[in-house]
Amino acid sequence: MSADRRPGDGPVTMADVARLAGVSPATVSRYLNGGKVGERIGEDVRRAVDQLGYRPNLVARGLRKQVASVWACVIPDIENPFFTSMVRGVEDVARPLRYSVVLANTDEDPATEADYLQMVVAQRMAGVIISPTRQSTDVSHLQQAGIQVVCVDREVSQPTDAVLVNSAAAARQATEHLIAAGCTRIACVTGRADTTVGAERLRGYREALLAAGRRLDGQLEHHCDFHAESAHAATSSLLRLPEPPDGIFVANNQMTLGVLRALQEAGQRVPQDVAVAGFDDLPWWALSAPTVTAVAQPTYQMGRAAGEMLAARLAGDRQPPRARYLDAVLVRRQSSRLGGVVDAPDLALPPLPVTAGFAPSTTPSTTSSATPSTTGAPHAR
With 0-12 CB in 10 A as exposed, 13-18 as middle and 19+ as buried, what is 39? Predict the structure, then answer.
């Protein structure tokens, strides 16, 4: 250690290295960044770095270059296996390209999301992969700052790259499956109306009913917050109707847990009394009793595709924003066989988490036969 420094003096700086090596800080910076310096000078700088134990501030270096080596992955629910699998796909693209991935969990809260996006701008990260809390989420300040944005699973109103599945088509297929199983009153427990997936999965459900010549009933449509407890409350409300449903389509995996819990607590057997089809497959759906019918999304592949789109943008791709659609598959299992018998113990469900501040809502209208709106570009819903 230099005689000018004592233990406790704080982190070693580039100026300390320069002083000990007898060169300017600019020369030290040039050496550390691979620039040309004389052989003797380079050896002096190297010895000073070793003697002082200097470690470059990689974040600060990225900021000075205006190109950080970090991607932000902003997701709404870190506890949902859908998003953890997706993030793995992103990381598997980022790591070989020498990018790090920072994970931000918004918990479906727009204010938290806005704070994280401001942090991305402040730290000048290279890019963002985001599953937004709302379609109205504003990413224009990121784009104006030159930060690349890719949406995954959900979209925003501004033009951005996106990786999606056709949620409406998959929801329609799941609802048609319940119709074919013999369900006469099918409910829909979907996500928030101000998210593209919440709106699109409701649209697919409605399209299936209308195509089968059935009327829409707003009492059977509930908007929830994508969490189990709100779906539990919605299902309890559905079971109190004078004519409760004999089939339920559920718009994500966490809400499916809430629906199954409510049915179990009410003594309603699945699928003998109520058939259930969900969205987003889970590994344990195939092991439960009954096994659970669900739309399986290619979650890992969605993450990889989003990472590849972001990497292409950072490599200079300047094409107009585009959406990439991946295929979802309906996996038919026991829970959707209305009236069927399952020779196995009831599904053992975990306790519901507690998330305050959201009450499920039904669709305002009670009956309708109008075809739902399908306006808007396919990847700017």
Answer: exposed
